[in-house]
């Protein structure tokens, strides 16, 4: 079985801006997330079967069709945080829009329906920028607007050079 997750696709210009934020954090981050791997997780699925994957892809393909035509898929990233227990540093959002919470909840509910064991915790939208972090950095001011147009089913692949996240199926949020 392979490890999968659903995530919002971050456009390249926003990835560049997030990378610049990473570089401004003193001291240097212990294990920064590579530019290619920056994403905002919607639902971590873990190891899933081909049958579960197929059912999730079919379900996810229907979600954009049900979205409101007036929805603007914008995010504003404005702070750095640390999940101390996990030792993860992240870029957080000024507010978590209803469309984001709803999309994450629908994907998680479908995964549970398919028998995928999901971690029980409140959804906290964030973009991981480093792992193995020991302390909170000095607060910094920024405001990065991120225009989202799609989400993908990603496969997590371990390599000798670290983990790579590869989008396998992408779903457009804009019609």
CATH homologous superfamily grouping: Cyclic phosphodiesterase
Termini Cα gap = 33 Å
Number of helices: 3
Domains (count): 1
Element-by-element helix/strand order = EHEEHEEHEEEE
Briefly, what is this?
This protein is an alpha+beta fold. It has one domain: Cyclic Phosphodiesterase, Chain: A (Alpha-Beta Complex).
List the helices and strands and how they pair.
Blueprint: E1 2-8, H1 12-24, E2 31-32, E3 40-48, H2 50-62, E4 74-83, E5 88-93, H3 98-113, E6 126-131, E7 144-147, E8 150-159, E9 162-172
Antiparallel strand pairs: 1-3, 1-8, 2-6, 4-5, 4-7, 5-6, 8-9
Describe the overall structure.
The chain has helices at about 10-25, 50-60, 100-115, and strands at about 1-10, 30, 40-50, 75-85, 90-95, 125-130, 145, 150-160, 160-170. The chain is of the alpha+beta class and about 180 residues long. The chain has one domain (about 1-170): Alpha-Beta Complex (Cyclic Phosphodiesterase, Chain: A), CATH 3.90.1140. Strands 2-6-5-4-7 form a 5-stranded antiparallel sheet, with helices on one face. Strand 8 (about 150-160) and strand 9 (about 160-170) form a beta hairpin. The longest helix has 16 residues, at about 100-115.
